[in-house]
Structures are given as C-alpha cells and as structure tokens.
Amino acid sequence: MTADHRLLTDKVALITGASSGIGAAAARVFAREGARLVLAARREDRLKELVAELRESGAEAAYVVADITRRADTKAAVACAVETYGRLDAAFNNAGWGTGREPLHTMDDELYDRIMDVNVRGVWNCLREEIAVMLPAGGGTIVNNSSVGGLLATPVAAPYVAAKHAVVGLTKAAAAEYAAQGVRINSVAPGTTRTEVVTEWFAAVPGVEEALHAATPQPRTAEPEEIAEAAAWLLSDRASFVTGVTMPVDGGFTMV
Question: Does this model's pTM top 0.85?
C-alpha cells in the first residue's frame, strides 16, 4: 500500500470566503491535499460551481451560504461540517473585505463599520463557533487570514490596517488561551495577491502594481494558490508545534 503523504488527508476543513480569490484557491489546494471540505461564502452560484468542480476531481465537498458578520451564519457553517462529516478538524477563516482607499479624515462611518465588521467581527464569530466544536473533540487547527497590513501601516487604508492588526491580536490571544487544550491558531499575512479586487485596483490605478513590485524583494504579485499553500501547511500536523504565529507570505515585503 502506498503511503499517503498529503498534508490534510481526511481532515474536515471549513473555508470561509471560498467563492473566489484566496478562498477558492484554498479549496482546490486543500482538496488536492486530501481534505474533506465545507465551503462558505455569500455567492451561492460560485459555491455551486466550485463544489461541482471539486467533486468532479474526486474530492468530498459541501457548501453553505453564509455571511460571517452574522453569528448565526458562522454557527450554520460549522454545523454543516459536523452534520456532514461528524466533526471539524481545521478551519481557514479567509473571508475579508477592504476597499475605499481614501484619507482617514474624509472616510465615512459606514465604510469604517463595514471594514471592521467583516474583518474583525467575522473572524471573532468564526473563532467562537469553531473552537466550541473542536474542544470536545480534543483539538483542531485554525488559520486566520490577516494581511501585510496587519504587520505594518500603509497610507489611505486606516480602517483596513486597524482591522488586520486586530486579526493578528485575536490570533495571538486565542492561541494563548487554547494551546494547552489542543487547538492551534495561527494566521497568514499575504502581500499583494492577484485576487479580483486587486486586479481591479491595478486596472484603476496605473503604475501601482509596478510600484509594489519595486518595494518587494521578490518583485512580483503572488498568486492566490501561494497563500493557500501556506495556510495548508499551518493547518497540517507538520506544523504541530506552531501556534500564535502570523506568517508573512509576501515575497519579503515586510522584512525591508
């Protein structure tokens, strides 16, 4: 019998924000690495297409329509994993949102509230529900998606920077609280990554991609799969002594 050396063999994994970008890439990477998946996002049409694609490749996958800013939706996503597969072993809290690059003093309250609600309350909601089902099972692994904006500051993005710093703080606090109970919690901090939002930003602001490349030791834009690979490793047993870490996946951007 051939040994199975995949990172996530038979692990039941939940991915939020799974309908596009890093979340959809994570679904494909995690499936390839042997995980059984529950995909959560707001756009049901995309979830249906992705689940069909994954099943066609032989993976086990289910989906639930969810808005992570509503705790009832995060509870339903976790419940879907437990009802479908009997447990939840791993979670990638990937869903996030950020736009409105404008000066802090002119930004309206509604935009601030939306950015904080999705990026902070959303992770908070997910952590509570995931940890609650992992503890009775003896443990599990969680990766939150922060950003290089959670490690340093960039102009005209104050609420996003604040929110992603909060994700780093939540990751550390939760990791410290639950490490002895078998739940490992880490985060990834992606640099500029070729998602739909970033592609639109590059198109709208000529020269911004080149400027970011010039500030990055590896002068290019990451592909979503590269972020997903880092998350897969952190969720796997090969990272068994890693908790409370925020891993930059940024081509060296934050080291300079």
Answer: yes
